[in-house]
UniProtKB/TrEMBL annotation:
SMART domains: FN3. Residues 202-299 form the Fibronectin type-III domain. This is ANKF1 protein. Residues 1-25 are annotated as: Disordered. It comes from Vidua macroura (Pin-tailed whydah). GO terms for biological process: establishment of mitotic spindle orientation; regulation of establishment of bipolar cell polarity. One of its GO terms (cellular component) is spindle. Pfam families: fn3 (PF00041).
Length: 690
């Protein structure tokens, strides 16, 4: 009979009957289930069910069948079926870590039959080994018991089949005999797999790096040898002594999707040694020391005690804005200015009447002037007026050219859409200066208020980096916003973008399209730009390339089209931290004659950052179409590391000082390949801040 431990386990698992008793039954079960893997349990017609209780009972029935089918798929080594079930069911729905009536988990069966692909798939999904196997002896005893009882059952059924006359009962006994013979062979294979297994070799490529001034990060790979059983967990140990005595701490890693671990709470400036060992069903293997053998938690700022550049800046700006608002609230100049010239006062009065008049509407066509349009989109749909027009309001019908400084001012206003009323009051006060610029900006604020009122929403989104102009004298400023919820707006409705493009009747010629036609033709490009400009980089250290070009009224910066809110860049490594030792090395490199590091045997063997920079510089030069031999005149910016939060940091690669910014008319010998664009510097700064 089974051991008392397994009897107790069977009682605890009484709610989970064993799976199909034969390979044929197993095949039939999950073949029948194959069409049900994609069932959405909330999609059943509730009217066809007696009630919620029956619906839940039906759902549990499907889940139990999938759990039994998973066991059978693992036993039959059907990798495709295992992967399909793990894809369509969660670990909780599969009861992935609940033992069956034999005291086994799916992962136990996979590793003891030495099926590494299935075992890895299960581990990736969060599978564990059975907690009842507390020692090698208990696992061996349990397997021996399963083999012995299966063999006994086979002998009993064989005797019954031989002694009984052929009948229906005999036919059923023969089926049971075949099923138990198959299970007997399975258990013997599991037992043999366990007996022939050995402890795993040490992990490979154990790399130690400095993650911060109080943490280290260790990364590693699986053992190189494939002759041992599947590794199911790893152990990271750390100590101040190279002999690891005393041991300061250890951590067991059983989530094997990413083989890395960050050791937190360390003392800055203290050297720590780290090693990693692997575990399988035979126990822990030998540890592997890291490369380098030790590391010292630190950060580049410790080199000269520099504080973070942006520490407290946001709070200080909020405080200043609050002070300005307080001063304006108590200022008598909020009253309408009586000394304004009559023409300007009439213009303002007319604009205010237009804003609050109940007949205020969106424009259908453009005349010669300056306009504002707001594009709201959701998936492949866009908001339009009831006349199937993109929402447009007028800023100034007498404004024939848009000064870049006015446009850049409006992009800054887009960071505070909720403060438009207050800004209007401030600009109204300032109109006594008779400034045409302030009048234009006041009209911009009026148009924004009108758009907000007609749509019933304050946030109009992000201003596109350049206005649309046509030969008829129209200038169209575009704002873009993605709507991710089922939000309702006033005076507008959703239509597919393709339908809008095909149904709109153009009033211009293809040779000279109006600004509205140009917008409609290029709307997908603008939406793609807007989506890409909100993407974030994955954590890591990057090498960025700073290249500027100047015009009469602006400076523009070179950026990649796929990520226009970031400089041209390549990734150096996944660890964003620059340690104090690495920063000291970079400072030494900045003081030598050759700005870009050149290779020596000492640097190659002792400084991983040197090798990483060599690879990154070559990749970046190729990306921006600059011959690598020209890199000898480039420089690494050594004043600071650009930190973007805690997870992304940048080192900058600069061209020679005379070539950082290309002046108007200056020849640029190296033209980047396609896939780049230049943004006004102020637009880029706003995108980077967001």
């Amino acid at each position: 009979k089974m051991t008392q431990q397994m009897r107790d386990l069977q009682l605890a698992q009484a709610r989970k009957p064993p799976g199909p008793s034969s390979p044929n039954a197993a095949k039939r079960l999950y073949r029948n289930l194959s069409g049900k893997f994609r069932v959405n349990y909330t999609s059943f017609d509730e009217g066809s069910l007696v009630g919620r209780g029956e619906k839940e009972k039906l759902r549990k029935s499907y889940l139990f069948q999938s759990n039994a089918a998973l066991f059978e798929a693992v036993e039959l080594q059907d990798l495709d079926r295992v992967q399909e079930m793990l894809k369509h069911y969660s670990p909780e729905e599969l009861d992935l870590n609940t033992p069956n009536s034999e005291g086994l988990l799916p992962l136990d069966i996979a590793i003891m039959t030495n099926n590494a692909p299935i075992a890895r798939a299960l581990l990736q999904a969060g599978a564990k080994e059975s907690p009842h196997f507390v020692s090698l002896e208990s696992r061996s005893l349990h397997l021996s018991t399963l083999v012995r009882e299966a063999e006994q059952r086979v002998n009993e059924l064989m005797a019954q089949v031989v002694n009984e006359a052929p009948n229906a009962d005999c036919s059923e006994k023969e089926k049971q005999l075949k099923a138990w013979e198959w299970r007997f062979r399975l258990y013997k294979r599991m037992k043999a797999g366990f007996e022939h297994a050995r402890v795993p070799d040490a992990p490979s490529n154990v790399h130690l790096s400095v993650a911060s001034s109080s943490s280290l990060q260790v990364t590693f790979w699986e053992p190189l040898s494939v002759n041992s059983a599947v590794v199911t967990k790893y152990k990271v140990e750390w100590s101040c002594s190279p002999t690891f005595s005393p041991l300061l701490g250890e951590a067991v890693i059983d989530k094997l999707k990413d083989l890395h671990f960050t050791i937190q709470g360390l003392v800055s400036g203290t050297a720590y040694h780290v090693r990693v060992s692997a575990y399988n069903m035979k126990g822990w293997g030998p540890p592997q020391a890291s490369t380098p053998p030790f590391a010292i938690p630190s950060n580049w700022r410790e080199y000269d005690g520099r504080a973070p550049r942006r520490r407290g800046q946001a709070e200080a700006l909020d405080h200043l804005l609050g002070q300005v608002k307080t001063v304006h609230q108590h200022c008598i100049c909020h009253e309408p200015c009586k000394n304004q010239p009559q023409s300007r006062k009439h213009s303002v009065s007319k604009s205010l009447k237009h804003l609050f008049h109940p007949g205020s509407k969106f424009l259908k066509t453009l005349k010669r002037g300056l306009y504002l349009t707001a594009i709201f989109y959701k998936d492949d749909n866009i908001l339009v007026t009831h006349e199937d027009q993109i929402p447009v309001v007028e800023i100034d019908d007498t404004y024939s050219c848009l000064l870049m400084q006015d446009f850049l001012w409006l992009t800054k206003v887009s960071c505070m859409w909720d403060e438009i009323l207050w800004l209007r009051q401030c600009v109204t006060v300032s109109q006594s200066s008779c400034s045409c610029i302030l009048q234009t900006r006041f009209k911009m604020l009026l148009a924004i208020s009108q758009m907000q009122g007609l749509l019933g929403i304050q946030d109009l989104g992000q201003v596109f980096f350049e206005p649309i102009k046509d030969k008829q004298g129209n200038i169209l400023i575009v704002t873009l916003k993605e709507v991710k919820t089922n939000q309702t707006f006033e005076s507008v409705r959703w239509v597919p973008i393709c339908k809008l493009q095909t149904s709109r009747k153009s009033v211009s010629s293809p040779e000279e399209p109006t600004a509205l036609d140009t917008l409609l033709i290029s709307v997908q490009d603008k939406l793609a730009y807007h989506q890409r400009s909100s993407h974030a980089l994955s954590p890591g250290l990057y090498l960025g390339y700073l290249k500027l070009c100047s015009a009469v009224d602006q400076i523009r910066v070179l950026v990649p089209e796929q990520l226009p809110n970031i400089l041209c860049h390549v990734k150096i490594r996944s660890n964003p931290n620059i340690s104090r030792e690495e920063w000291e090395w970079l400072q030494k490199m900045a003081s030598v004659e050759e700005p870009v590091p050149t290779e020596t045997e000492t640097d190659r063997s002792q400084n991983p950052l040197f090798q990483e920079l060599q690879v990154a510089i070559k990749e970046l030069m190729t990306l921006v179409n600059i011959p690598f031999q020209e890199a000898k005149d480039f420089r690494l910016y050594s004043q600071e590391v650009l930190d973007f939060g805690d997870q992304v940091s940048f080192l900058l690669l600069l061209p020679p000082s005379d070539d950082v910014c290309t002046a108007p008319g200056q020849n640029n010998p190296y033209t980047p390949r396609s896939g780049f664009l230049t943004l006004p510097l102020q637009i880029f700064e706003l995108g980077e801040e967001k």
